[in-house]
Amino acid sequence: MALTKAKKDEVVSEVAALLASSKMTIVAAYPGTTVKAMQALRKQARSNGTQLRVVKNRLVIKAIQQNDALKGTDISSLNGQLMYAFNSEDEVAPAQVLAGFMKTNPTLEFVGAISAEGTFLSKDEVKALATLPSKAQLIAQVVAMLQSPLNDVTNALSGNLHALLDGIEAKAAA
Predict the structure, then answer these.
(1) Domain of 27: which CATH number?
(2) SS3 call for 135
(3) Contact present, 121 and 113 (Cβ < 8 Å)
(4) What crossing angle do the helices spanning 57-66 and 5-21 adopt, rounded to 10°?
């Protein structure tokens, strides 16, 4: 069923808003992916704040051209049946969701990504991005590194304190 001009304008404005708020938009080709698999992917994506949209490339290109930050984006790779994954909180999350899904459904394939600054990333760069730890994991790693010297000092002092108390107890008993 063909979309009316008003409906197309509504879709373009919705995609433009998603592009403007998204830190990273992952583009993936999905030919051969079943409806049931796409529903499972959408459910997984929602759990980490990623929104998936299947939109005609022509409408996405119009939405990109409406955004001042994205006007210079290379759009030559936007061909074929494409799905767009948007996330306004985490740059890595959409790539990770799609990469995890690709392990069990090889019909899905990265095409590239559009950063918030308007840079188009290649599919190899997106694959590398998908292997990065999430924002929460990175924060936890930094906190653990900062806390490590403090724990070492505390453990060293408590170990020597126990030895000192054992020594004093042994002296008092003698």
Answers:
(1) 3.30.70.1730
(2) helix
(3) yes
(4) 60
Number of domains in the chain: 2
The verdict on 112 and 169 lying in the same domain is no
Helix (H) or strand (E) holding 43: helix 35-47
Identify the domain containing residue 76 by its residue range. Answer: 5-132
Q: Are the beta carbons of 26 and 90 closer than 8 angstroms?
A: no
* Polymer length in residues for the chain: 174
CA distance linking residue 87 with residue 51, whole number of Å: 6
Residue listed under structure tokens 């990273």: 24
**DSSP one-letter code for 152:** H
Tell me the three state secondary structure of residue 129: helix
Token pair belonging to 146: 């900062």
pTM of the predicted model, to two decimals? 0.73
How far is it between the farthest Cα atoms of the chain?
97
- Give me the residue label for tokens 């694959």: 127
E strand or H helix at 163, and its extent?
helix 135-173
pLDDT per position as a tens digit, 9-62: 898 889 888 888 888 899 999 998 889 999 999 999 998 889 999 999 899 889
pLDDT at 1 over 60: no
d(CA 77, CA 27): 9
Say whether 112 sits in a helix, a strand or coil: strand
- CA–CA separation, 59 and 62 (whole Å): 5
